[in-house]
């Protein structure tokens, strides 16, 4: 919170004090921060440029977009001022939870979203499992994507405990998003400062796709909460304690049972430890403890996966281990120029003619190699995919309203999402520029830059959907909050100079 110093005093605040941020120890960490921030400038600049082009499709003219953007920026700065000056932590948490839960509950009650596609397969499996029938484990869907069984049994547990109600499952979606909002608040506060934490969480609460997806029975609600809870524990004091590593490993392990992104977050975790935490630990002679905790996280994660896989196989639910039986599928789809790296019905029909196992994997690998032969086409596809992944409008309205003929409402929701996304891309660009110029930043911020950049790189080669942004958007909320705070600090100083002078 701000002190009670006078406006004239605040105008003399040195630049580094005006933008408080925990500093990563060591010259090497500063270099890494600067390198990551430069790549971050490129990514957020890409997001801003291509999302601006996409946004123009949904508005009547450039002036409309400009006015909407100015209104959004002004609203964000006003909220930052209110949060910084007048909202203590506990009242803010109350407001945050009220906004998060209230908006999502209103949407869930107003729009009757029925499960479709993969969500329907997992929900139907959950209903069957709750009734004691687990024969679905050997059907074609769960034989191909065995890792989806974890979420199906999560839904089965809720159905068993609370009855077969879509509303009840959606209420748990809201609960997990509320938990994620709190995690983002704490995370951004650790990475930067408390005001950044407040604004990161508040913008998460107000982000339209998050609200709409609460009525969709996707595994992303649970997994996102668990993965980012694990990251919050990692960068907080608890990881320095005796059992912090255990809870980090459990969060990543159970998160992977819900949605198979565990290997990605584990890789980010190891990169963070090696690149950011290792040198200070060597200097302070604490590296054996850090190495032991890192191994402990990996061991706990492995034990969770092996335990769940063993239980499912031994109970007769599935004959396969808890992993994808088609390791080349995502890459083969991601390199399909006909669908711009998106899901392909033709590819699905092609691979299903081969029996599951080595023969199908060979067929997918051969098609993958064939698509890699035309290097120019591959390069053009990578650029086109990245435009879509980080510039196109979010598909949340399609998933949340798949069978509802309400085009006017959909257009309004898309417009709102586009302006929010553009605003955050702008503040993200400012944040990365400030960190790149200063060359100093917190180790926590470097972790979230690593994850966001790694996720962007991964989706250059694998299947893309704008819905997949959901899984990494907490990194965007955390990082852009520093850009918003930087803009607010500049605005505050300039206003202070004017007031003091006159």
Automatic annotation (TrEMBL):
GO molecular function, one term: pentosyltransferase activity
Topological category with respect to the lipid bilayer: Multi-pass membrane protein
Subcellular location(s) per record: Cell membrane
Sequence segments annotated as region (Disordered): 1-21
Keywords: Cell membrane, Glycosyltransferase, Membrane, Transferase, Transmembrane, Transmembrane helix
Positions of the Glycosyltransferase RgtA/B/C/D-like domain: 152-300
Polar residues composition bias: residue spans: 1-14
A Pfam family recorded for this sequence: PMT_2
Major subcellular location class: membrane
Gene Ontology biological-process annotations: lipopolysaccharide biosynthetic process
Listed transmembrane segments: 31-49, 61-83, 90-110, 145-162, 174-193, 199-218, 225-248, 260-279, 421-439, 445-462, 474-491
Cellular component GO terms held in the UniProt record: plasma membrane
Protein name: Glycosyltransferase RgtA/B/C/D-like domain-containing protein
Organism: Paenibacillus flagellatus
